[in-house]
Write a structure and sequence with these properties.
The protein is mainly α. The protein is built from five helices and no strands. It is 76% helix and 0% strand.
Amino acid sequence: MKSVLFAALLFVGSAQAQQNFVAISSLPDAPSPHRFWSRENKTDFSILAGQITADAITTQHGLNEGFRESNPIIRPLVTRGAAGEAAASALGLGFGIGTAYLLHRTHHYKAERVATRSMLAVEGGFVANNLLRLY
């Protein structure tokens, strides 16, 4: 009889301990998923689009002044006037966003930010180079 009573108390005590454990430490909320079109990415890609537009305008202005496009891959497009320049600009912006999206989908969030900021720096350098040569 003592062993039955001892077993019953042991089971009741362990059941009570399990209830307290669950009540004390609840599970934390799941982290929210990282979204691609966050405010940061919208801002970065808007700046990139503005820089690409400035690059397109200064490139066409330079071509009208007698300069030559130094990029051999883009040269066939930009020498076709505004339509070719628009196509080259759209390809450049699409490549930039596509690269960042690929990094995002493979969960390389830090590399996504580094790549986006690098694109901004490089494109800013292109615009600065065009402006220095023109003025």
